[in-house]
Automatic annotation (TrEMBL):
InterPro entries reported in the protein's UniProt record: Aminotrans_V_dom, PyrdxlP-dep_Trfase, PyrdxlP-dep_Trfase_major, PyrdxlP-dep_Trfase_small, SP_NH2Trfase/AEP_transaminase
Presence of keyword Transferase: yes
Domain Aminotransferase class V residue range list: 24-318
Enzyme class: transferase
PANTHER family: ALANINE--GLYOXYLATE AMINOTRANSFERASE (PTHR21152:SF40), AMINOTRANSFERASE CLASS V (PTHR21152)
Source species: Hyphomicrobium sulfonivorans
Pathway: One-carbon metabolism; formaldehyde assimilation via serine pathway
Residues bearing PTM N6-(pyridoxal phosphate)lysine: 198
One of the GO BP terms on file: glycine biosynthetic process, by transamination of glyoxylate
Family statement: Belongs to the class-V pyridoxal-phosphate-dependent aminotransferase family.
Identification of the protein by name: Serine--glyoxylate aminotransferase
Keyword vocabulary terms for this entry: Aminotransferase, Pyridoxal phosphate, Transferase
Length: 397
């Protein structure tokens, strides 16, 4: 690449940019992970991380990508041949289904059009029909990163309760935690799965599993094989602030710093910022005369916006032009969206001016790639962000 000046614009939905404060927190000498200093740090960290999930229950941290926590959720609570129901909203739900198959489970899928969130009514109807309660777990992705569609988890919980069904509720928040509202306890989620490199603004390498008492009880009876990802081994030692094996010390110090940063800003402000940047992005897309991939306004993602490419234009050819000319990485179209859509992430360590830079790069890229569009997307986003900022300014004055 000819031009390396300025920073690279990493506008993909993970990994996301890591704040300088977090880099500094991670850059430290190694220490004895069973010594008193680490154990004191670990005890505070295990307590503090609960706030991000809005839970009083244990949050288990594995050294793995988010995918590892999918596996942990399944193997710790289920037995060979168990039926699980996956709400298929996009590619990540598909990958979770494939994993369940590989583990010897019997996944069943409720698919949608991949342009909206999971259908709580369809879930309720399916669970009502399962009168023998054969389904042991319901798997839902809160933010389907491949399509830019969210699912309202409180509605999923209500559907399960209305059906009187006892299946465990497992929710993937890998791209939504610390970016949109999430309440593990209040929403009655049994297992919440997450990862470090998206809303949490960390490098990849940590996965998270928040568990309920019901999930812990299920883990006592479940017979799928589990070893590295055993919850028992973790919970037996986490109380003393450390791990059954060598933890990724640097990443954990980074996590402590991102939790501090999130609490300084306030989680509700963090969520509002994501909503604002997402709305600005959608206004730009509409002004360009392009389509937001998600077709249901209630399901618009505050994390990532997938944009449909006009007929006859390839989204990856467009992304290549943007990368080569403006040093910006946009998200590729995954699976069914390959070549048909690109994704603009507005996730993590990002603000008004970084999203404006990203949208300017997209608008210039559309011109260079000769994609038919109207000018004025950047102006529309700017007008919205200025107006959205003014109440705070008025308050301060
Ligand atoms: C990124 C992502 C994953 C995969 O996480 P890895 O950390 O890459 O293993 C799974 N689900 C969702 C919703 C994601 O966004």
């Amino acid at each position: 690449m000819a031009n390396h000046a300025g920073r690279h614009f990493l506008q993909i939905p993970g990994p996301t940019p890591v704040p300088e404060r977090v880099h500094n927190a991670m850059a430290r000498s190694m220490m004895d992970h069973r010594g008193p200093a680490f154990c004191e740090f670990g005890q505070k960290l295990f307590a503090d991380v609960k706030g991000i999930f809005k839970t009083q229950q244990p949050v288990i941290i594995f050294p793995s990508s988010g995918t590892g926590s999918w596996e942990a959720a399944l193997t710790n609570t289920l037995s060979p041949g168990d039926h699980v129901l996956v709400m298929e909203t996009g590619q990540f739900a598909v990958l979770w289904t494939k994993m369940a198959e590989r583990m010897g489970l019997k996944p069943e899928v409720i698919a949608n059009d991949w342009r909206s969130g999971a259908d709580a009514n369809a879930l309720e109807a399916r669970l009502r029909a399962d009168s023998s309660q054969q389904i042991k777990a319901v798997c839902v992705v809160q933010n389907e990163t491949s399509t830019g569609a969210r699912t309202h988890i409180d509605e999923i919980r209500k559907a399960m309760d209305a059906a009187g069904h006892s299946a465990l509720l497992m929710v993937d928040t890998i791209s939504s935690l610390a970016a949109m509202d999430y309440r593990h306890d209040e929403w009655g989620v049994d297992i919440t799965i997450s990862g470090s490199q998206k809303g949490l603004m960390l490098p990849p390498g940590l996965s998270f599993t928040a568990v309920s008492q019901k999930a812990l009880a299920a883990s006592k009876k479940a017979t799928l094989a589990r070893a590295y990802f055993s919850w028992d081994d973790m919970l037996a030692i986490n109380g003393s602030g450390t791990f059954p094996y060598t933890p990724p010390i640097g990443l954990l110090f980074g996590l402590a710093e991102t939790i501090t940063m999130l609490n300084e800003e306030g989680l509700s402000n963090v969520f509002a910022r994501h909503e604002r940047l997402a709305e600005a992005t959608r206004r730009a897309v509409k002004a360009w005369g392009l389509e937001v991939w998600c077709q249901d306004a209630r399901a618009y993602s505050p994390v990532v916006t997938a944009v449909e490419m006009p007929e006859g234009h390839n989204s990856d050819a467009f992304r290549k032009i943007v990368l080569e000319n403006f040093n910006m990485s946009l998200g590729t179209g995954l699976s069914k969206l390959a070549g048909k859509a690109f994704r603009i992430a507005h996730l993590g360590y990002t603000n008004e001016l970084t999203i404006m830079g990203a949208l300017a790069g997209v608008e210039m890229g559309l011109e260079l790639a000769r994609v038919p569009h109207n000018k004025g997307g950047v102006s529309a986003a700017m007008a919205y962000l200025a107006q959205a900022a003014s109440p705070a300014t008025a308050q301060a004055a």
